[in-house]
Design goal:
The protein is α+β, with helices and mostly antiparallel strands. The protein contains 9 helices and 10 strands. The strands form 2 sheets. The protein has an 8-stranded antiparallel β-sheet, with helices on both faces. A hairpin with a 5-residue loop joins strand 6 and strand 7. The protein is elongated, with a radius of gyration of 20 Å. The relative contact order is 0.15.
């Protein structure tokens, strides 16, 4: 359910997917797309580790207790979220400090309804970019990185106040599937802060917005997608490019996989957002 970038750094060559989607919550079609991205990963059935899960639940609880965070631990294998409310929740009128709840969803909807709609849409986009960014990082190092961004959330008076949002993927199965995600919401002292990924071990800052997408698709794939956008069928594309229809079909499938979309209409829209089509 969201987007692709190619990033070059001194020690990184990363393909980070960034499907730019306009989202207004609740939009069940978009939520379904996101669920397919996160919840249909090939989890290892024998790696549902209760001790490790309990350890991260304690960590989330302590963030709420010590930092006054709203701490949300999402289990993408079981589609359950564990929410711990600190003082931030009480300030926003969401819950009392010290409260907690479990939800049968990876989405903390009770929190989302306080987020400004524009910021919620951007939150989805950035989280999916971050997800695909981490897919290119060795899984043992993924917990070193976190996504940091600003949100506006509504307080009991109806005023939107700045909130610092941080997201970590804290546990991964041995087959590379992301298992546990931790989201933290805190009152922010810097409302001008931009969205970024930070490596907590060395302070490296990565601006996902500035990554180069131009090499995401090959020249041939761009040509075929351009012809698709013009309304041409696979048969017409094959005849125009002097290739077989099967070759066109293979390219079309590769395009969908690289852009993480389900059909050609979405592929064309996403490619335009990424400046791959004009």
């Amino acid at each position: 359910m969201f987007y692709d970038y190619l990033c070059k750094g001194k020690s990184l060559y990363l393909s980070t997917q960034c499907l730019l989607i306009t989202i207004s919550f609740p939009d069940m079609d978009i939520v379904d797309k996101l669920n397919k991205e996160f919840l249909t990963q090939p989890f290892c059935k024998n790696e549902q580790l209760p001790e490790e899960l309990n350890e991260y639940k304690r960590i989330a609880y302590n963030y709420a207790r010590i930092e006054n965070s709203i701490a949300v631990l999402s289990d993408m294998h079981t589609n359950i979220s564990y929410i711990y409310y600190g003082g931030t929740a009480e300030t926003l009128g969401i819950a009392r400090k010290g409260d907690n709840q479990n939800l049968e969803s990876i989405w903390e909807k009770e929190v989302f309804k306080y987020i400004h709609p524009d910021d919620l849409a951007e939150k989805y986009v950035q989280e999916l970019r971050f997800y695909h960014f981490l897919k290119q990082i060795p899984h043992k190092k993924r917990a070193d990185y976190f996504l940091m961004s600003k949100l506006r959330m509504r307080d009991p008076s109806g005023k939107y106040i700045p909130i610092l949002h941080r997201m970590f993927y804290v546990a991964t199965h041995s087959n590379d599937s992301m298992w546990l995600a931790l989201c933290l919401y805190n009152l922010s002292v810097d409302p001008t802060m931009s969205c970024r990924v930070i490596n907590s071990t060395n302070g490296q800052i990565i601006e996902l917005e500035k990554q180069d997408c131009s090499r995401l698709l090959s020249d041939r794939e761009k040509t075929i997608l351009q012809l698709i956008d013009m309304g041409k069928t696979s048969h017409e594309i094959a005849r125009e490019l002097f290739i077989s229809k099967n070759t066109v079909s293979r390219h079309r499938q590769n395009i969908l996989e690289k852009l993480q979309v389900k059909n050609s209409i979405e592929a064309c829209r996403i490619a335009k957002e990424l400046k791959l089509l004009f």
